[in-house]
Amino acid sequence: AAARRAGAQEITVTVERHDQSAPVAYGWGDEVHVQTTLTVTATGRPRLALRE
Known about the structure:
The protein is 8% helix and 62% strand. A two-stranded antiparallel sheet has the order 1-2. The protein is mainly beta.
């Protein structure tokens, strides 16, 4: 919605996910989840201005 309010048309949204984990001591499993980083990007062509 923010991209459309900014004047974009033909909006494309991309989502990237990056999970990070770390190994743990014996007996606790293989690894533990540390964090997840999401990057969401909306791009679009600018709307043409109308002449008055």
